[in-house]
Amino acid sequence: MNRTPADIKAVSLSLVGFAALWWIAAWLGDDPAVLPDPAEVWQIFLKETASGVLPHHFTATLLRVAAAFLLALGIGIVLGIAMGANARVNRWLSTWVVLLLNIPALVVIVLCYLWIGLNEVAAITAVALNKTAMVAVSLREGMHALDPKVRDMAQVFRMAPLTRLRYIILPQLWPYFAASVRNGLAIIWKIVLVVEFLGRSNGIGFQIHLYFQLFETGYVLAYALSFVAFMLLLEVTLISTIETRATRWRLGTAARKS
């Protein structure tokens, strides 16, 4: 998606405003041990990047986020479509979904570590379980919101199941899929940090735990903001593009009606 100059200007001004507020807060506090200014955190970031330590832990977190995200998205989409298409399946699985939605993420993480062990399988499983139910609910609501007229048209023309899925169901589910992608990435990486904080020996969360114990606020901010910056970059490039393409058919329909 080509971002307009107005979009770029808005994002730039927002970031400048954030940095200005941070600088003012650091100046008023006048205690670098509690809140260092942006320049000091930037220097820490450059030093940790040059040494290779930050890229190492960043990559570990990114791989966990990607694995948990793909697992949760894949299972959640299948469950959501099945629950939305079949009332009996929905009755059987809705209780499980509600249960997963209401169990605190911390409890799921601790139980996975106790049952599976302090390993990567437990870490990724814990994160995926916390997100799968959210994806399933979103896709189920998308199935319930399908246009009945389009569904009836597909039945009249006797479309094959795969053809109906490709040309009727999936285009209408794209906005719900895009919302699941955006919310999923935002939530999963935060849960991954908790997983690393509690039981891994690398990753952004592990480093935050280390520097929390040393009361090194600047290092905590440098590591945390490195991944925040990456997620912001992902938002303004990939996710925005997916969302625009997901809703393009609606814009075309509205234009034809007008």
Concise account of the structure shown:
The chain is an all-alpha fold and about 260 residues long. The chain has helices at about 5-30, 40-50, 55-85, 85-100, 105-115, 120-145, 150-155, 160-200, 205-215, 215-245, 250-255.
Q: What labels describe this entry?
A:
mainly alpha, 258 residues, globular, MetI-like fold, 11 helices
Could you walk me through the main structural features you see in this protein, from its secondary elements to its overall organization?
The chain has a single domain, classed as MetI-like (MetI-like fold), CATH 1.10.3720. Helix 3 crosses helix 8 and helix 5 (105-116) crosses helix 8. The protein has 11 helices and no strands. 86% of the residues lie in helices and 0% in strands. It has 258 residues and is mainly α.
Secondary structure elements and their pairing?
Blueprint: H1 5-29, H2 38-51, H3 53-85, H4 87-102, H5 105-116, H6 120-144, H7 148-156, H8 161-199, H9 204-213, H10 217-246, H11 248-257
Helix pairs in contact: 2-10, 3-4, 3-6, 3-8, 3-9, 4-6, 5-6, 5-8, 6-8, 8-9, 8-10, 9-10
